[in-house]
Every structure is written in C-alpha cells, then in structure tokens.
Amino acid sequence: MSEATPIPMMILTGFLGAGKTTVLNRLLTAQHGLKIAVLVNDFGAINIDAQLVVGVEANEIVNLANGCICCTIREDLLSTTLELLERPDRPEYIIVEASGVSDPVSVALTFRLPALRSLINLAAIVAVVDAERIQEQRQQIVQVGDQIAAADIVVVNKIDLVDPTQQQRVINWIQAIVPRARILTAEYGGVPIDLLLGIGQYQIDLLVDRHEFAPQQHDEDWQTWHYQTAKPFTMSSLQHAFQQLPNSIFRAKGIVYLAEAPERQAIVQLAGKRASLQLGEPWGATPPHSKIVVIGRSQSFDPAQLTAQFDACLAQPTHELREEILTVAEWRRKYQNQ
Ligand SMILES: Nc1nc2c(ncn2[C@@H]2O[C@H](COP(=O)(O)OP(=O)(O)OP(=O)(O)O)[C@@H](O)[C@H]2O)c(=O)[nH]1
C-alpha cells in the first residue's frame, strides 16, 4: 500500500457489555489476510479489554490511555494513530474499539482533523447492541440511542437470549432510529466478516454540522472502581460478589487468580445482571494476580464498600488450600526456575 493511500478504519461502538470485544475477536481471528491494528479504549483505570482481545500475530493491539476516547483522551487517539501510520509496516486496516460510554461521532470527527484527514478513510461505524438489554438501556442511557443513530451497520448481538418477537421488536426500533443502516443479527458476534470489513465510506460529512468539536465531559456521568491483588480469590465467594453487585453497576470484568485453579487465568464478566466466569490461558511467565474493574452511574456506589466486599472473597490459607495457594515468590520459584 502506498504512503498516499488512506487506510480504512472502523469505529466499533456499543454500550457497556454489548459484545464489542466479542465481535472484534471474531474479526481478528477470521481469514481475511489483512494486517489489522486495533486501538482499544477501556473506560476504567486498568485496561482489561486489551488482554481480552485475542491477538493474532500479524495484528497489533494498542492500548489507549485511561479515559473516554471521545473527550479526555482525544489527543492520545490522534497521536497513537499517527504513530501507527508512520511505521514502516503500516497496518492495512485500523479498528477503534471505543469504550461503551463514548460518542462515536466525536471519535469519528477526530479523524477529520487536518493531521489525519487525508491519511484515514473512515470506512464504517459499527454499533453492537445487546438484544436482551437494549430496551431497558435505551430508557436509562441517552448514549445508547446516539451510538445506534451514528452507525451504518448495527449488529444485534446476543440473540440467543431473546425470543423471535423480542428480536423483531429490537430490529424495528433500530430501523426507526437509523433507516439507512444495515442490521445484522448475531450470537457471540458471529456476523459475516466480509460485510463488516468491506463496507463503503462512512458519510461523516452528514454529521459534521451536527457536532461540536468541543470535548464532551461525560466522564463525569460515570464512576469506575478497580481492584488489584496478588492474592487468590475463592471462586464461589467471587461469583457471589459479582452477583451481588448493585444494579447501578452496568458492567464489571476482570482477569483473576483463583485458589481452585491457580495455574490458569480466570475471566469474570458481568453485563447487566448476567455474570459469568471461565478459565482462560495459563499464567505463563506472568505471576498470577487479579484485576477487576467496574463501571456504574456516577456516585451510585461506595468504593470502600466494594473493596471490603472483594477483600472478603480472598482465599484464607486453610490447611486444604495451602498447597494450592502460592505466594508470588513461591510461584516464581516453582514455575520460572524450572
Ligand atoms: N449469551 C451471550 N453472551 C454474549 C454474547 N456476546 C457476548 N456475550 C458475553 O457478554 C459479555 C460482554 O461481552 P464483551 O464482548 O466483553 O462486551 P463489550 O461490549 O466489549 O464490553 P465493554 O467493552 O466492557 O463495554 C461477555 O461475558 C461475553 O461473553 C452473545 O451473543 N450471547
């Protein structure tokens, strides 16, 4: 690709927990032969998303700084993109996974700034929707409708959780908001990849007049909390803690160290009221540790109380567990020196 050819870019949007990372992983593992760079913007203070993205060798996952991509860290988005474009092995396609609370149009407008305008071709804004929860979310959160209104493809995800009538109701609602969009239904982000990657040019010009370049400060609408520890959790207590999180918390996710499975990372997720826990990759060269991030409405939960709740889930080194629970030092001795 010559220096002068603008690189196609997709902005992947959708509310917290809708399935953006799931769609992204499908895209990255599909056979399309493209060298894709992914810019990941997590809203919490610790970046968990980048670790949940399945890396494929030719692709590159870049973590953007902490903060919302459409307001506080726009500069970072701009400079990171420029850096990618200056590399000798420039990517052939760029995907920006926006945080669940960001405004995709403001993100898109970043690429209209003079520094990037001729280098990037905004190919599409893809909005992922949680079919089960969208009706409830749209009444509570204004960003949900805005994200859909900006899209030219809407992926109605999690159709395994709704019946055909509810699915059709969601589709009708989306069609009413954004008649020009192509609507695809999906289970775990499974949509035809060609349809996502081979999209035409996004009509950003239509939106420019409607938007101000002034940063929006909706960072203030949301509260995040995070927890990190090198001690293992007891699985049942952790699952219970996730299920007991207050309703005002929309999303929680973490990569955790479990006393019952000390050799493998465990991934905990909460999207709305649905919690899940699954075992992932072995820790490998990384000493086991846990990091959890939650996102909820501003001032809607007490961080100290959450910290106490999660502290209470840490495994006590009882006689039976003592062999399983390794301190970081022991772990290093056992796994790194062999
Ligand atoms: N039942 C069901 N669960 C799904 C589906 N797609 C994704 N999930 C689950 O929903 C949760 C959230 O998925 P993610 O892909 O992390 O969502 P996200 O939009 O990237 O989340 P944030 O970036 O944190 O806002 C995870 O536990 C997924 O496994 C689906 O089609 N059906």
Automatic annotation (TrEMBL):
It comes from the Bacteria. Gene3D superfamilies: CobW-like, C-terminal domain, P-loop containing nucleotide triphosphate hydrolases. SMART domains: CobW_C (SM00833). Keywords: Chaperone, Hydrolase, Nucleotide-binding. The keyword Nucleotide-binding applies. Belongs to the SIMIBI class G3E GTPase family. ZNG1 subfamily. PANTHER family: COBW-RELATED (PTHR13748). This is Cobalamin biosynthesis protein P47K. It comes from Herpetosiphon geysericola.
